[in-house]
Amino acid sequence: MCNSRFFVVTGVHYTVEAKLFIEIPTEAIQKDTAIKTARSEIWRCFVKSSEQSENSCVAVKSITFNRKPSADEVEEAKKIILHRASIWIELYHDNILRLEGIISDGGFGLLPALVSPWMENGSLDNYLDVRQPDLDKKLFVLREIAVGLQYLHSKDIYSDLTPVG
What DSSP assignment string belongs to 50-104? Predict the structure, then answer.
């Protein structure tokens, strides 16, 4: 079971599009298990913080290429990831997962990896398959998703919504 408290790791802070990111050094991360999707790997990891006695459990999402990319493709993908992260880091809502920081020192591939809290129930499709909630719980989850989506739309954020990480 993972500790769900937030963590702070002292690292390099830098700005992208006037947003401050916390750079989490790879050596502060202990990899556990990975879930591979068509375009990413989502790692369950543990982070030791100087401010906490216990390890914090986090998800580290690294975007992957399905072939060897050119240097230009890597740079363009980095810009896109950092742009999206600059939007995500500004979101504060109970139904929106927080961006905790990024890892860009190569420990998770060519591109910056995104660090967020680990969700013990996994993705929505996994939760529905494994937990098989009753109708009332499904309706509750649907309402919570709608509230989060309404918040995103109020910020002029529109994107594909999928039940997987």
Answer: TT-SSEEEEEEEEE--SSPPPHHHHHHHHHHHHHHHHHHTT---TTSPPP-EEE-
**Nearest C-alpha neighbor of 104 from the set 18, 37, 12:** 12
Beta bridge partners of 44: 33, 59
Q: How confident is the model at residue 143, as a pLDDT? A: 96
Rounded (10°) angle between helices 124-131 and 135-154: 170
Q: Which of 116, 111, 117 is nearest to 63 (CA)?
A: 111
Structure-block tokens of residue 157: 């954020």
Q: Mind listing the pLDDT tens digit for each residue in 7-21?
A: 333 333 334 444 456
Phi/psi at 107 (nearest 5 deg)?
A: -70, -15
Q: What is the pLDDT of residues 37-77, one digit of tens each?
A: 888 999 999 987 666 667 889 999 999 998 999 999 999 99
For residues 57 and 79, membership in a common domain is answered with yes
Q: What is the CATH number of the domain that holds 92?
A: 3.30.200.20
Please indicate, yes or no, if residue 7 is contained in any of the structural domains: no
Structure token pair of residue 16: 């992208």
Number of domains in the chain: 2
Closest CA to 43 of 151, 162, 165, 129: 165
